[in-house]
Amino acid sequence: MEPRILLDLSWSLRWAGPPVGILRVERELARFAFASLPAAHGVFFDPATRRYRLLDRATALRFLAGDAVLDTLGLRDPGRVGRRKSDRIPATLRPLARWLLQSRHMALQTLERRRLAAPPERAARIARLQAPLIKGKYRGLMLKGDGSRRDFVPLDALASAPVDFRPDDILVCAGAGWSHTDIAAIRDQKQATPFRLALLCYDIIPILFPQFYKPHDVESFTHYFEGAFRIADLVLVNSRRVEADVKAWCTRLALPLAATTVVPLGADIPAAGGAPAGALPSGLEPQKFALFVSTIEPRKGHRLLYETWLRLLAAGVPQKAGFKLVFVGRPGWMVEDLVRALDSDERLNGTLLRLDRVDDATMRALSAGAAFCLYPSRYEGYGLPLVEAFHLGKAVIASTGGSLPEVAGPFSPCLDPEDAEAWFTTMRRWIEDPSARAPYEETIRTSFRHPGWSESAALFFARVTDLLAVDPQQSGEPQARSSAARSR
Questions:
Q1: CA separation for the pair 198, 260 (Å, rounded)
Q2: HSE (CB half, 13 Å, CA atoms) of 247?
Q3: Do residues 261 and 482 touch, judged by C-beta distance below 8 A?
């Protein structure tokens, strides 16, 4: 039989929103593989059976396109088993408890099962019965941005068979495995049948900076990678800094580590003449604001910018230039006090805008209209927002956190995220004198180039398929690797 490349799509099946971050990478890699690699198949981890299940290609593509989302009611994240309140309910009583505690969800699920199995005319009638129930969080799950329906698929309706691993299989894990898979179960299956495992590690930030995360998330993340690094045949990373961090941590814990290789993330240049930009939010003028796009969380540096902005206001700098600061991103964890300050501090006097969610047209307007961008993160495993800003010709004041200097190269100044004075001085100079950022803008315009998703994915799978040259019987021994798998 032809060797198979099994793509773990566990996160893509569960997520209905815009593909960002790790989810975007998982989907871009899968799209390339399905278009270019006949041996590619989609799989997902079923926590109920602790086994992978095989998806037919048409079904996988429906989920990747956002035309379907998995109904996760009763489907526990393996990384949080035993930590949810519902885990305390005896298994025999859980169906009744769900009807009592989640009656709307259960009604939607019951009707959806019937709708998916019904002929078109009857399915339309069931959809009309569901419509009044599709509110709040269910609206985002069951409806696309344009208001059209997506299938809300129960797990048992996928009709997918368990994966019977073969020694020449390569399992590719490029998602959030620490939440959506059970690394002990994968280890057991790999010991029973020594398939190959290619693991994409974006970073180990929760291990390096546990103070920025909830303790149970740090525990799940650490447990996953302690197990995953032991059994992976190839660890792919997106930067040399992450590779060095991973090697140092494994050395410190005496963890065996297989071959590693660096594959940069892709980023596609927006096509000329594409979708038009929308209008800027009220109160913003083109080239009169700085832009920071990121989920608000402790690591990202929003507090540094907030405090720096207050200093700039006290010095009269933004007022004199008619300049503003814009944050785009939803609130994350451990930032409640900061979000309250951003929304209520009278000293800001409307000069700092916090936009939780914006549509694509408004995001294009913000990106095009910004005078420059900011990225003060304490640590990043890569930093795609830098790349995206460069694609638009925007200069960025970035930080020295993690891989950002590696990605920024000569196109941005990188400042210590702990050096508040440097941020104050540089932001002041860029606001008061646009020529201060002009050399960076010129270098970006004449020299910036970055691989698109197709190029990045092609390199990724070239490194992965190198594993096919390795004797499967050696795949459990990290020391035995081909020179091709070790190459950069």
A1: 10
A2: 14
A3: no
Alpha-carbon gap, residue 456 to 32, rounded angstroms: 10
Beta strands 352-355 and 372-375: pairing type? unpaired
CA distance 399 to 408: 9
SS3 (DSSP) at 133: helix
200 within 8 A of 173, measured Cβ to Cβ: yes
Side-chain half-sphere CA neighbours of 134 within 13 A? 21
User: Which residue shows structure tokens 């429906």?
Assistant: 62
Q: Name the residue type at position 269.
A: I
pLDDT value for 87: 63
User: What is the DSSP code string of 286-319?
Assistant: TTSEEEEES-B-GGGTHHHHHHHHHHHHHTTHHH
User: Rounded to an integer, what distance in angstroms lies between the CA atom of residue 145 and that of residue 127?
Assistant: 18
- The per-residue pLDDT for 270 is 59
Query: 49 by DSSP, 3-state: which?
Result: coil
Closest CA to 330 of 297, 311, 305, 356: 356
Long-range contacts of 302-305 (CB under 8 A, 24+ apart): 302/327, 302/335, 302/338, 302/342, 303/338, 304/376, 304/417, 304/420, 304/423, 305/374, 305/376, 305/423
Nearest-angstrom CA–CA distance, 445 and 462 = 31
- Per DSSP bridges, beta strands 259-262 and 289-293 are unpaired
Alpha-carbon distances of 482 from 151, 193, 235, 259, rounded to whole Å: 44, 20, 14, 9
Give the pLDDT confidence score for residue 15 in this predicted structure: 85
3-state helix, strand, coil in the chain (%, to 5): 50, 15, 35
Beta-ladder partners of 380 = 402
How far apart, in whole angstroms, are the C-alpha atoms of residue 9 and residue 284?
A: 40
Can you give the length of the chain in residues? 488
Please, what's the largest Cα pairwise distance for the chain? 71
The partner residues of 44 in beta bridges, in order of sequence, read: 53
**Given the DSSP bridges, would you call strands 170-173 and 196-201 parallel, antiparallel or unpaired?**
parallel
Q: Exposed e or buried b for every residue in 313-340, given b needs 16+ CB within 10 A?
A: beeebbeebebbbbbbbebbeebeebbe
Report CA dihedral (59, 357, 204, 334) to the nearest 10 degrees: -130
Question: Is residue 308 a contact partner of residue 327, using CB atoms and an 8 Å limit?
Answer: no
Encoding tokens for residue 311? 């200093």
Whole-model pTM: value is 0.88
Task: Find out whether 44 and 9 touch, Cβ atoms under 8 Å.
Answer: yes
Which residue in 140, 266, 200 sits closest to 8, CA to CA? 200
Q: What pLDDT is recorded for position 84?
A: 58
Spans of the chain, pLDDT less than 50: 272-273, 475-488
